[in-house]
Amino acid sequence: MNEMADNSGQIPSILIVDDEEAVLYTLETVLKREGYQIERAGSAREALDKLDARNFDLIISDLNMPGESGLELLDAVRKKDSESLLILITAFGSEAVAVDAMKRGAYDYLAKPFANDDLKITVRRALEKAALRHENMILRLQLHEREGLQAIIGSSEGMQRIYDLIERVAPNDVTVLITGESGTGKELVAQAIHSLSARKSASFVRVNCAAIPETLIESELFGSEKGAFSGAISRRLGKFELADRGTIFLDEIGDMSLATQTKILRILQEKEFERLGGQHMVKVDTRVITATNRDLTKAIAEGAFREDLFYRLNVVNIQLP
């Protein structure tokens, strides 16, 4: 067995919660092979009893269980310790409930049926977040000393709450929509989220959607193959590929055309795209952060912005004054 210790030398401990024995068996088998310490609970109540007795690095719970649900367990766990990490397992088609759970503090969710590799990747990222906590405290002090971010944070209670939200959302690999007037520091907030995340060692790529002509934005974002258009003498990587394993910041997303919005939606759903003139799908692992000074709900009502894309982008909203 591969013993997987964290930075302190301790083997990560995981509490798995489900009322179905078969699910518990599968989760335990897969995760023990990764070297984790596993403990089971057959209900939310049993899980809370175990949490009263000891701490776990991560909790994985089914959403729908007899008695108290996974959401009720989440609320109880977060009340005990706001830093607790919990992954919810949901039924196919329960995405809206899962997103609501993430807004309430869940780290992530897995929709059934999920692949073992998806489980292992999600767990690994959650445990990486736990390992980053101490480092993030140090980085927070460094960020406070930076003139630009200090200007954003200011001294008001409202701005301190925004910074606290940045710290909470940064290690969670969710999309973030930053809203506010021009000049309020949206890009600096996006950079802070990237710097506080597990992706910090990879690229942070900024794209000003309003500054790129509509005729060029597709090749700018997705790249192009040799011969895709006049002057395309070689393959060119787009911004999404350049941001692979890192973060892409799409500024002024509200100015993007509906056609391009559709392609962004596909990337968020499928994690893949085609280069301009290409015939093969390109897979990417990129965190997407967007910003706008427009009222996107109004744009949706006017037919200028896709509602399903807004739903995907607005998992967490940071509103700057």
Question: What features would you describe in this structure?
Answer:
The protein has 321 residues and is α/β, with parallel strands linked by helices. It folds into two domains: 122 residues, Rossmann fold (3-Layer(aba) Sandwich), CATH 3.40.50; 174 residues, P-loop containing nucleotide triphosphate hydrolases (Rossmann fold), CATH 3.40.50.300. Helices cover 44% and strands 17% of the residues. It has 13 helices and twelve strands. The strands form three sheets. A five-stranded parallel β-sheet has the order 2-1-3-4-5, with helices on both faces. Helix 2 runs parallel beside helix 3. It is globular, with a radius of gyration of 21 Å.
